[in-house]
Design a protein that fits this description.
The protein is an alpha/beta fold and about 250 residues long. It has one domain: NAD(P)-binding Rossmann-like Domain (Rossmann fold), CATH 3.40.50.720. Helices cover about 40% and strands about 15% of the residues. Helix 1 crosses helix 8, helix 3 packs across helix 4 and helix 4 packs parallel to helix 5. The structure holds NADP nicotinamide-adenine-dinucleotide phosphate (NAP). NADP nicotinamide-adenine-dinucleotide phosphate binds next to helix 1.
């Protein structure tokens, strides 16, 4: 019997794969057999070493997603270098914190541009490639607990991640019948650069930990298995879902 989680021969484009959740997902997909194109603004040298160490091919594509400028060529470059494209992981993201009364337009736009606008146009570029070439594809967007909850002092982040959840469902409706599975992973509280400030705040850290049924913060590698599932044939009938990977946070 074939392994439904096997990604041998597949190519995945992962944004923001130099660190944190993106790196862990890239390595997990490579471990399941996929070759990796890593698109982002910091050279993903550590990720390259891990992916190549697993015997998979790796290419780094410089891209700054604060604008849509790099998007039109990314799919073409991935296909040109690795021979195809089957999986898109929209992981790159940022957060800005301030009281809503003081929140600036610049902090609104910066977060929406990376977390939502570029995500949509990357999905569009991927969708066009897959559908125009009669292929099958898997999109995994990285959502958040703030795709479900309101949060506090992060208005553009909450708006962007709620938008990612909505977009995931909309694209699933349009593309489920065209051979593309569009889903999202909503990580709980993960130990990455994104949460350094939260973990450094003793009071917030204790409050967060007390609410997580699993009793610990997530490691980036906790996102690997769910990503492999959503990238593989094992999830062929899964469309438009936002999968919480949160140690039980939303169950409280
Ligand atoms: P991270 O360690 O800060 O990684 C963020 C990644 O996004 C980095 O690779 C970063 O590149 C990239 N990025 C940011 N702005 C970019 C831009 N303009 N152009 C290209 N790449 C850019 O944080 P993380 O926690 O792994 O975050 C990954 C995703 O998970 C984000 O979408 C985040 O919102 C989401 N998430 C995180 C948590 C958590 O608890 N950590 C929870 C829920 C959701 P540089 O290294 O060059 O900045």
């Amino acid at each position: 019997m074939t392994n439904p989680f096997d990604l041998t021969g597949k190519v995945a484009l992962v944004t923001g794969a130099n660190t944190g959740i993106g790196q862990a997902i890239a390595v997990a997909l490579a471990n399941a057999g996929a070759d990796i194109a890593a698109a982002g603004r910091t050279p993903p040298d550590e990720t390259r070493a891990q992916v190549e160490g697993l015997g998979r091919r790796f290419t780094a594509l410089p891209a700054d997603f604060s604008s849509t400028a790099p998007i039109p060529t990314l799919v073409e470059e991935t296909v040109g270098t690795l021979g195809g494209l089957d999986i898109l992981v929209n992981n790159a993201g940022i957060i800005r914190r301030a009281d809503s009364l003081d929140f600036t337009e610049a902090d609104w736009d910066a977060v929406m541009d990376v977390n939502l606008k570029s995500v949509f146009f990357l999905c569009q570029a991927f969708g066009r490639y897959v559908i125009n070439n009669g292929r099958r594809g898997k999109i995994i967007n990285i959502a958040s607990m703030l795709s479900f909850q309101g949060g506090i002092r992060v208005p553009s982040y909450t708006a962007s991640k709620s938008g990612v959840a909505g977009l995931t469902k909309l694209l699933a409706n349009e593309w489920a019948g065209k051979g593309i599975n569009v889903n999202a992973i909503a990580p709980g509280y993960v130990e990455t650069n994104n949460t350094t400030a939260l973990r450094a705040d003793e009071k917030r850290n204790a409050e967060i930990l007390a609410r997580i049924p699993a009793g610990r913060w997530s490691a980036p590698s906790d996102m690997g298995g769910p990503a492999v599932f959503l990238a593989s044939a094992a999830s062929d009938y899964v469309h438009g879902t936002v999968l919480p990977v949160d140690g039980g946070w939303l169950a409280r």
